[in-house]
Amino acid sequence: xxxxxxxxxxxxxxxxxxxxxxxxxxxxxxxxxxxxxxxxxxxxxxxxxxxxxxxxxxxxxxxxxxxxxxxxxxxxxxxxxxxxxxxxxxxxxxxxxxxxxxxxxxxxxxxxxxxxxxxxxxxxxxxxxxxxxxxxxxxxxxxxxxxxxxxxxxxxxxxxxxxxxxxxxx
Length: 170
Prior knowledge:
- By secondary structure, this protein is mainly beta.
- The protein has a single domain (about 5-90, about 130-160), classed as Archaeosine Trna-guanine Transglycosylase, Chain: A, domain 4 (Roll), CATH 2.30.130.
- It contains 2 helices and 11 strands.
- Mean pLDDT is about 90; it is low at about 165-170.
């Protein structure tokens, strides 16, 4: 039986997932279970603000942390903003002799990041995991962590109690 997973994702990567530019989430490790499994997306609090406009409902990324300036919009940072099904896991790595070998950086399709960003995140020659994103659902009303029985956000990801189909609860 698979367990549900809560994944902490920075606002800029959340925006890329929502826009469809990012169809694979990159992690240094993976759950000890087979696929498929449900992943809840926790948008972290950070240097950028992800918000849903009250004017047109569109989700946008603001390049500064300024939640007080968004009192007229729905700020998504610090909330569980949606979920996806991880249909597959794939090993990822970048092996080069140095950072200069990745100049100019090349965008990696599906990852929403460049080879240089991947190299800086994983480290030279180290392997990571690509978590395949499918069946993406972004909630109209984001959830507080406590709705998942969690009181502090994970650094990367953590298991949460399996919730099954949560339609109608939100």
